[in-house]
Write a structure and sequence with these properties.
Strand order of the largest sheet: 1-5-4-3-2
CATH topology: YaeB-like fold
CATH architecture: 2-Layer Sandwich
Order of helices and strands: HEHHEEEE
Shape: globular
Number of strands: 5
Strand content: 35-45%
Length: 117
């Protein structure tokens, strides 16, 4: 049985993935992300494929208010190349336009919790 929280997560993922398909994925350009992609043997396109493959069972926490900008962030985790990867996503709105944004994509610094696994 799916509870209300799982439904909210599923709706977020559906909207996020639709935005990626329609307008692409903006990945915040941080050295940590670039190093993680190299360490995991992933291209930017493979990173996008991994994000598009996220499901409710990969959910860790959120939505949490973004302290720096308006909106909310969601945290997911996924096993990629034998490493647990921390993935922080956000739907950003500029005027009436929405964008899919990946704020973090790197090896987890500590074990992540998965309430729906």
């Amino acid at each position: 049985m799916v509870d209300l929280s799982q439904l909210k997560i599923a709706l977020f993922l559906k909207e996020f993935k639709q935005l990626v398909q329609e307008g692409g994925l903006y990945v915040v350009n941080r050295l940590e992300h670039q190093k993680s992609l190299v360490d995991l043997g992933l291209t930017k396109e493979a990173c996008k494929v991994e994000i598009l493959g996220l499901s409710v069972t990969d959910y860790c926490k959120g939505p949490q208010p973004d302290k720096d900008r308006p909106g909310y962030m969601w945290v997911f985790g996924k096993e990629i190349a034998s490493s647990e990867v921390y993935i922080k996503l956000k739907i950003t709105q500029v005027g009436s336009d929405k964008f899919a944004k990946c704020i973090s994509f790197h090896a987890a610094e500590h074990p992540l919790g998965y309430p729906y696994k």
